[in-house]
Every structure is written in structure tokens, then in C-alpha cells.
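ENTRY TYPE: paired fold submission
RECORD: A
CONTENT: sequence, then C-alpha cells
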Amino acid sequence: MRAILLVLATLLTGCGHPQVDARRTFNEGVSALSSGDADAATEKLLSARDSAGTDDALRLRAAYDLGLAWVAKAEKAEGPDDKLSDLRQSAAWFRDAVRLDPKDDDARANLEIVLHRATAVADQMNQDQNRLEGRLKAVIEDARALRDGVRQLLGQLDAGGAQTDPQAFQDSFDKLATQDRALSAQVGTVLDLAGDELDGLGQKADDDLSDKEKARQYQLNALETWVNSARTSLTSGRADLRDLDARGAHTQATRSLAELKRAAEQLSDPIQVLQAVTRDEATLRQKTAVLMQAGALSVNDATADDNQPVPALPSWFSADSLDEEQGTIADRAGEIAARLDAASQAEAPEDEKQQRLLALATEAAPFVHTGVEHMAQARQALVSGSVGQAILPETQALSSLSEALERFSDLRTLVDLAWTTQDQITTLMDPSQGDASLSAADRMQAVAEGVSRNRSRLERLKPLIADDRAKAQAAADKAQADSDDSDDDNDDGGGDTGQAQ
């Protein structure tokens, strides 16, 4: 075991010499480490290293013992997060010691040991109820809270009018900047967790990775890309807050939230993402309708009810913001379409259910592509300021996404959809019901489209019904088998009791 205490250099004499003080501080740190006070040890050792000046030997020994001190802190850490953080600090100091003396075998060996321990802790954390996914979900909620906070501040500034001095809201800007900084740290933790898992997968040869592990590796790489983008947006937003630019900060907060959501979607299957995209497109259509109505009322106030004032929309609620939101949704939908295309082109599996799922992906992909095309048309209308003209392509995009999503519906949902459509068909076939403005030709066209959709649904219902029937039969068979086993146990028990008597 290497010696802990250093002997003061004989050339350094005199009270108060910087290097004498640095070595004295180093010895105090070593003493604290020996007595088990890791916190005091790290403080003293770090101070000694920073004050070492040209004393290369002192810097090397301080770095090495800082590695030991952080290991001691890791052993006392209460939670896995703190333990992993301490081990990473230890590895950083041992790595520094190796840099200062590449021939230091002790530092190199300790670095390898600490890295192995850190990997083991990270693996355990990732196995603990999808820790990465859970942390990312929490970060998204915090990012949403940050965006809402910036929106509230922007609303306060707008309410004061053009003459409002942003410096009057300095405290609010500072609090949001602090919130942004804390969120950036959490985003860094997400990157660390993803990186640890990738490191674990990277230790295996490509041929040794299972298909599931390869898919996970691809997902994590894509996740890292979006999380890094979110961190960049947060940094830009924090700069805007320091410059008292609430509008710029809102843009960056909104963008970082969208990027974190994109990161989370890398870990979800395409159907879950398609559901989220469909919901977001429906919300966007509602926002567009609100903006269109507000614009119509503000242009021609005389047509508005005197008792109903023109709605005052926040400044961030604009055609430009909706255009950016539509662009994000279109990108997400395009990514889903690409994943569905890839699935449909994959080699047919032997499993019958998987074959059916791939067939559904092939059937759904064109609808998603069509939805993306309609979204592009909506963006053109929003960019040109023709908000009202964006409603139709947004509606068409929503319809296309719903058609794609329907391909993956379960039995109950598909039956409900077919029932609803059949009810609409019945109403359309009775001229005394429904929309009287529809012509006979329009009614027949709507009926034909409804019948066509339900025929397609009936074909998709057949395998779902067969699966449900098979599950019910399997459950009945198991219940019968359990009942037979219970009867056998009772017979055995009765015989034993008779013998005992």
C-alpha cells in the first residue's frame, strides 16, 4: 500500500510558503480520510491540489487520494443516485492521476475497479422499474412546469402594455432561470443513465447482441440526440431569461419540452406514439379554430355580440406558434411512418400474431403518410397567415391518423366504431333524420363510404374474435384442469383420513 503522508520538501522553508501550506493541507486531508471523515478529506485534498502550484508530485498524490475519498463517500451514500455520482467523481480523479503519471499502476487498477462498480450500480438502477423511463417522464413534467411559468410571466408583461419595464420582474426572471438550471441538471442525469446503459451494451460484440438489445441500442442513441437538443434549448432559454427576454425564453422552453417528448417517444412502440400524435393533432385543430374565431371577431367587431367581448389571446398564441407545433407533429408522424414502413418490409416472422401485426403496419403506413401531407398543407396556410384555411387540412390529417390508429384497435374498440358508423348509416338512409341540407347524392356517397369502412372493419374483427374465443377456451380448460386437480386432492385426503382412523 502506497504511503499516505508526504515529507515536506527541504527546499521549502518558512512559514506561510504556498507549497508548504498546500502540503500541510494535504496531510490534513489524508488524516481526515484515515479517520473516516470523507467530506473533510475531499475538501482538504481538493484545496491542496488547487494550491500545489508547480509541485507535480503533490498534484498527483492529491488526485489519487481524492479518488479514494470519493470511494469512501460512495460507500456511505444512501441512494443509488448518490452512490453512482460519487463513483463517477472517484473515477474522474483516478483518471486524472493516470494522466499525470501514465505509469502509475495503482491509479490505473483503482480506476478500472471504480468503473466496474459504477457500471454495476448503473445496471441495477436501469433494471429498477425502468428507471430511465421514469426519470425522463419526471423531467418532461418539470419542463412543462417551466414553460407554463414563462407563459405566466409573458402574460404579466403583456398585461402591462408596451411600456412595461421587464426589470420590474427581475425576481421572476431569476427564479425561472434557476428553475431552468435545475432542469438542465436533471436532463444531464437522464443522459448519464442512457449513457451507462449504452456503455453496458457496448461491452458486447455486435454478434452477441440480441435483436432486443440492438433495438434498445438504437432507441438510446436516438434518445440521446433529442435530450442533447433539449439541453441546448434550455441553455438558450436561460440566456434569454438573463437578458429579460420572456418571448425568446418561451420559444426555447416550448422547444425543449417538445424535444424531451420526442426523446421519450424513442422508447415507445409506434402505436403508442401514433396515439399521442393523434391527440396532439386534435388539440392543434382546436387551437386553430380558436385563433380563427378570435381573428374574425377582432376584424369585424360589429358582428360580435355586444355582451361577448373579443377573446384576448396571449401573445404566444399565434399562427407562428401553431406552425411550429404543426411542424413538430408532422416530424413525429413522419418518424412513425418510417417505422411502420420498416416493419412492413421486415422478414415475415413465424409467429401468426406477429405476421398479423406486420400486415396491419403495412395497411396503416399509407394513412400516416397521407396525414403528413395534409399537415404540410396546414403549415402552408399558417405561414401565410390564412389561419382559417388550415382547418380543413388539419381535419384531414386527423382523419388519416385516426384511420391508421384504427388498424391497431382492440376488439371492443373496433366493435364500438363499427356500431357508431352503422348507426350513422341508418340515419343517413332516412331523409327525415340528420342534416336536411344534404342532397340525395351526398347521402348516398356518405352511406357508401360508411359501408366500405365497416366491411373493412369486419375483416379485421374476424382474427380478433378468434383470438378472444381462443383465450376464453384456454381459460375454461385451465379452470377445468384446476377443478379436476382439486377433486383428486380431496379424494386423496379422504383416503388418508380413513386410514388414520
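RECORD: B
CONTENT: sequence, then C-alpha cells
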Amino acid sequence: MTQGVHSLPPDALMAVLLAVRNYDTFDPEDDPYGEHDFGVIELPNLPKIYWKIDYYEDANMEFGTEDRLNAYRVLMVMLADEY
């Protein structure tokens, strides 16, 4: 998670992480290729949150990869204004 998400109050942080875990609102606007690797979360009294999954070739995480079946995956949770 980014510094902005990390600095949220504990109850807000828990709400954000639960919303990411339970996210299933994929639509063509946010997920045009059907990859289910990006989402937008809007919770009351919190800034808009983005989450995304990046795919890397190896554990060094220097280069992305197109081989998503054999990739290292990193989930990033961030405030929308940190994107």
C-alpha cells in the first residue's frame, strides 16, 4: 500500500482492505480487457481508492511480463490522487 493508504486511521484502513478483498464490481470502463487487475473503491467519508495488480517477470520485479500465468504479482492499494 502507498503511504497515503497506510496513513489512514486503523478503522478506515481495515474498511479499505476488506473492500479490496471483496471487490467484484468489474465493469468495461475500469476493466476493458476483462483482466480483473484494477478496481476503484469509494467508501463514505474516505478519498477514492484505486487498487491494481502488476505482473513481473521475476522476483527482482524490474521488468514487467506478458506471461501472466507464470508472473510474480504485486497488489498495490493507493489513494486515487497517488496514481
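NOTES ON RECORD B: The radius of gyration is 14 Å. Residues 10-21 form the longest helix (12 residues).
STATUS: closed
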